[in-house]
Amino acid sequence: MPHWFYTFRDFNSASIASFHFGQSSLCVHSLTEFGLFMLSHYYPPDRTFGTSQHSDRSFLSILLQDHIGGLQVLHDDYWVDVPPVSGALLVNLGDILQASLYILISNDKFVSVEHRVLANRGEKPRISVASFFVHPLPSLRVYGPIEELLSEENPPKYRDTTITEYTSQYMARGLDGNSLLLHYKI
Ligand SMILES: O=C(O)CCC(=O)C(=O)O
Ligand SMILES: [Fe+2]
Fold it and tell me: Which residue ranges does the record assign to the Fe2OG dioxygenase domain (predicted)?
């Protein structure tokens, strides 16, 4: 059964660098026992800044945007607008440990994109629905560098951890613009 709960993000926040899951949008969450997680965002332009810079803590994210726009990705140190395409689903490789493992085994070739939302540029509210594939919690399974891909020239860059540890650190830390992966670098 999905578990539904509601969060009022911080409408009074003066800073776009606000706390993840406490940012300035009204947000409805649902999480199933299979690790399907949905975030429905409502951004009133007069009361929100948007969503702070972050990479998703999912394995994979699928995002449905409306026509308002405001989503930006960080590319070569520049923020680039992602034009909204009606009915299109945007797919993003996330930053939870499974993806981090890809990053790790490919020696940082696969990275999850940093993104943010500027939702106070227009007159109308913005609505988006993000669906995430996450690892069901709690899980004590240990993830680390895949041994077959390691060598003297390619030593492990990250230390082992569990999804439970990673997720609790992600939630406690909030969105500070730095990937949590840095925390696991050896
Ligand atoms: O509202 C959006 O378009 C993106 C939201 C987002 O990045 C997220 O929920 O992780
Ligand atoms: Fe996101």
Answer: 32-136
Q: How many angstroms is it from 36 CA to the middle of ligand 2?
A: 15
153 is in which domain, residue-wise?
A: 33-183
- Please report whether residue 72 resides in a domain: yes
Residue 39 Cβ < 6 Å to ligand 1: yes
- Report the domain count for the chain: 1
Q: Which ipTM value was assigned to this complex?
A: 0.98
Q: Which ligand is nearest to the CA of 42?
A: 1
* CATH code assigned at 55: 2.60.120.330
Q: What is the pLDDT along the chain (186 residues), one digit of tens a residue?
A: 333 333 333 332 222 223 333 344 556 556 666 677 778 788 877 777 778 777 776 777 889 988 888 999 988 999 999 988 888 888 776 654 445 545 554 556 566 788 888 887 778 888 888 888 777 767 787 877 777 778 888 888 888 888 778 777 766 765 555 667 778 888
Quickly count helices (H) and strands (E) in the chain.
3, 12
Q: Separation of 55 CA from ligand 2 center, angstroms?
A: 6
Quote the strand ranges of 59-143, DSSP E.
60-65, 71-75, 78-81, 89-93, 115-118, 126-133, 142-143
